[in-house]
Structure of Thioesterase superfamily protein:
Amino acid sequence: MLKRFPFWVPVSAHTPSFLERGTQFTQSSPHTQLLLTKLNYRLEETRVLCIPDTRKKERLVSLAMAFPFTITADACDVPVGMKPEDTPVMSCGALTSLVDTTTSLHVVERLLPENITHVSVDIQVRSLHPIRAGDRVVLISRMDKMGARLAFLSAELLHDNNSEIGLDTATTETTSGKEGEDMNKNGNQVGSLKVLEEMIVRHRVLAQGNHVKCLLR
């Protein structure tokens, strides 16, 4: 999905130090490390969509981060009495952990180069459609507001399936490619918001979430 939207740039191009810091963050929790391994997640595949910093106009910050995953049976529930032909569905616990982990990684990225501890104040997750083993998905974390003490984030889990949504790849690249590159270069906030909303509308939203984090400065 993300390769078809060139305005999403690799996180390593925007924040090179994120790969090291993100690895430290995920490896600090055995639970998080196991979950991301089960979902075939690679930190370097994360991408960002940028806007100008409200405090420093010459600096770009990540409005949103995109995390690609593949849902595996290991991350799904296998209820008693499940038939062999049934496809396992991702558990609510795994989904909540995924929203927690990805939005927390977004906070980590926004705080760099500082390394500030942050804890959850509130997290809510809503499953809209079954998330099945074998699904390719992209979780979009959006930084709705970030202050000195609190960060407010929202998340959408999108189903990456061209045939289902009828997305014309060639058309998308032709009409959005140069525009998207210019958005990242110039930090066009209105354009970036438009791009983000368009991407969400074009794909089936499997789940949504909200996360409030406290920064322990």
Observations:
- The chain is about 35% helix and 30% strand.
- Helices lie at 11-14, 18-27, 30-38, 92-111, 162-165, 169-186, 189-202.
